[in-house]
Amino acid sequence: MLYVVRKVCLVLFISVLSGGCSIQQIQGVSLNEVDIKTVGWIENGQISGIDKDIKFKLDTGAKTSSINAEILEKPDNESESGGMIKFKYTNTEGIEKVFERPVERWVKIKGEGRRPVVKMQFCVAGRWVEEEANLADRDDFNYSVLVGRNMLKKGKLAVNSAESFTAKSNCKAEEKQNES
Q1: Residue 93: which region, alpha, beta or left (left: phi > 0; alpha: psi -120 to 50)?
Q2: What is the DSSP string of 17-69?
Q3: Which of 12, 14, 48, 145 is the 20 to 30 Å CA partner of 61?
């Protein structure tokens, strides 16, 4: 018995000396931060340039946000970035808006080819967030706007998947930056 106790103590001592019990730093956003806002997986939001509420799906499984777009004009050369792209946003409630944005980059989607990525400004839970969104044909999806982890992180939003419509979009026009 004494032999087992000595062996356990020796293993613990070596473990402590080698850093085996060190505290690891966790990367990410602390949920203790005051400005983190919890929202549902579906929320009303706004797109800069459209003055009506739109249903957004907040998806922690999607890295980049996505918006329904019909490409009207694209750059001649699909290089990694540069050039202007013109597209029309539509949703099932009849909201339409034509946007023209610089292409930030192109993203390759399995089985679909390449999609252009532009900067868009969305209002979610009363916060304007400007970040990249890829342009996709989302006509067959329930929601024309998908808010991915990039905007969730930048907007300091945490998603409660058991809730929906927990926050008001109520963003003020003067808070918008880079109005289209």
Answers
A1: alpha
A2: HTTTTPPPPPPS--TT-TT-EEEESEEEEEETT--S-EEEEE-TT-SSEEEE-
A3: 48
Query: Residue 153: helix, strand or coil by DSSP?
Result: helix
* Three-state SS at 178: coil
3-state SS assignment for residue 89: strand
Q: For residue range 14-73, list pLDDT tens digits in order.
A: 554 455 444 444 445 455 556 899 999 999 999 999 989 999 999 999 999 999 999 999
Closest CA to 157 of 29, 36, 32, 27: 36
Contact status, residue 4 vs residue 12, Cβ threshold 8 Å = no
